[in-house]
């Protein structure tokens, strides 16, 4: 009998399991994959996410894996540039973009060191119920026989297509249609740093350095361009760079060498999902997903994994009922993520609303305001520090925006 079973061992599952085991709870974690292994990902970890790795004693492992430090951000949205870097968060003055084959193994090994029992290549086929509560899982390791494990709580950290969510009938809410699709790969021979740029024709490209002296290069286009893109992905990939940043597109042709095939990423709609019930909870993409354009997936997995582990510990220790603890986890998660969810689903359209065009244009006139905006993106500055009406007035005054052109809220 375990205290907690975690289904899924990557960016959300491993932190939950590790943190609970460090508090003395008996934890089983299962995953259908084996480690090290790769996963489709943006790789980007914001400073607030890195702060959690640092608090857990794992950031040095990411750095020691020769993950490059990034200390300049080159953002542009429809010709409005934001160049600089956010102020440090908990002393962290860089961001890192580790490949998942590196990061996920660090996380799984940390869970093992904490005392978590880990079963790899284990596929969950069903949940075990008793008196209306989830009390365990059923599945098999590789081609082995069916096995059943019991626990006080089962955590689904098993992604978009969560088996745990499906088996408990968890409903979606606040759903917003996915706007785009992504293709990406890895290139050697480039020294570009971090770029994140949206062009004028509903196309975006991003690039950032990762392990093994490679740059991840990605493009995003709107869904209506998908059929054309699929007809010749390599040509269309380069055409996006030609459109958004022709000089860098030429550098890619002249100096870059693609080291792996192009990888498509067609993601589901943006959503929240019912994330707790009797004996179960969801974390990571299993419970909450948004467009990858803002790169918040892994950082949210860390933040919410820690939040969930704290609440489960409260339930297991008797500080509050488990049902109350899990309900509070979802309440806090939903409240804290609402601003980023709104911003992400807006910029994912690859157009710029009059509101954002006005605000970002004003921000770009000042390094002080640019640093503050990059701090919001990094997770170290609250959104109201720019977007509250009185702060917008300060911004508009500093930028010299006339009264008749000031916009204070999205239309």
Automatic annotation (TrEMBL):
The EC number of this protein is 1.-.-.-
**A Pfam family matched by this chain, by name?**
FAD_binding_3
In its keyword annotation, does this UniProt entry include Oxidoreductase?
yes
Which controlled-vocabulary keywords does the entry list? Oxidoreductase
The record's InterPro entries line, in alphabetical order, gives: FAD-bd, FAD/NAD-bd_sf, Geranylgeranyl_reductase
Record keywords: Oxidoreductase included?
A: yes
Q: What are this entry's molecular-function GO terms?
A: oxidoreductase activity
FAD-binding domain boundaries? 2-320
Protein name according to UniProt? NAD(P)/FAD-dependent oxidoreductase
Taxonomically, what lineage is the organism?
A: Bacteria, Bacillati, Actinomycetota, Actinomycetes, Micromonosporales
């Amino acid at each position: 009998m375990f205290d907690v079973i975690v289904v899924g061992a990557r960016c959300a599952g491993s932190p939950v399991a590790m943190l609970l085991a460090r508090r003395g709870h008996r934890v089983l974690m299962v995953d259908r994959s084996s480690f090290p292994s790769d996963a489709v990902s943006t790789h980007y970890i914001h400073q607030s996410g890195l702060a959690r790795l640092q608090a857990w004693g794992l950031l040095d492992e990411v750095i020691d894996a020769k993950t490059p430090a990034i200390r300049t951000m080159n953002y542009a949205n429809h010709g409005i540039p934001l160049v600089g870097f956010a102020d440090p968060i908990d002393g962290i003055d860089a961001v890192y973009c580790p490949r998942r084959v590196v990061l996920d193994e660090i996380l799984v090994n940390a869970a093992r060191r904490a005392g978590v029992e880990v079963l790899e290549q284990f596929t969950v086929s069903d949940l075990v119920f008793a008196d209306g509560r989830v009390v365990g899982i059923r599945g098999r390791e590789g081609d082995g026989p069916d096995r059943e494990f019991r626990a006080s709580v089962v955590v689904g950290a098993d992604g978009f297509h969560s088996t745990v969510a499906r088996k408990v009938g968890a409903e979606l809410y606040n759903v917003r249609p996915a706007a785009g699709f992504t293709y990406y790969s890895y290139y050697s021979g480039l020294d570009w740093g971090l770029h994140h740029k949206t062009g004028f024709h509903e196309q975006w490209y991003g690039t950032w350095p990762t392990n093994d002296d490679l740059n991840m290069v990605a493009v995003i286009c709107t869904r209506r361009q998908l059929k054309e893109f699929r007809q010749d992905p390599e040509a269309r990939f380069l055409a996006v760079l030609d459109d958004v940043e022709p000089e860098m597109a030429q550098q890619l042709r002249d100096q870059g060498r693609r080291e792996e095939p192009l990888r498509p990423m067609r993601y589901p709609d943006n959503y929240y999902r019912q994330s707790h019930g009797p004996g179960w909870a969801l974390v990571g993409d299993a419970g909450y997903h948004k467009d990858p354009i803002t790169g918040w997936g892994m950082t949210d997995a860390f933040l919410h994994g820690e939040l969930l582990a704290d609440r489960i510990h409260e339930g297991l220790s008797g500080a509050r009922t488990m049902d109350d603890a899990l309900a509070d986890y979802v309440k806090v998660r939903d409240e804290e993520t609402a601003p980023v969810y709104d911003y992400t689903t807006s910029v994912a359209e690859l157009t710029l609303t009059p509101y954002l065009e006005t605000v970002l244009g004003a921000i770009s006139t000042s390094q002080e305001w640019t640093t503050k905006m990059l701090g919001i993106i990094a997770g170290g500055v609250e959104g109201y520090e720019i977007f509250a009406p009185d702060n917008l007035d300060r911004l508009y005054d500093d930028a010299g925006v006339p009264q008749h052109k000031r916009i204070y809220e999205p239309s």
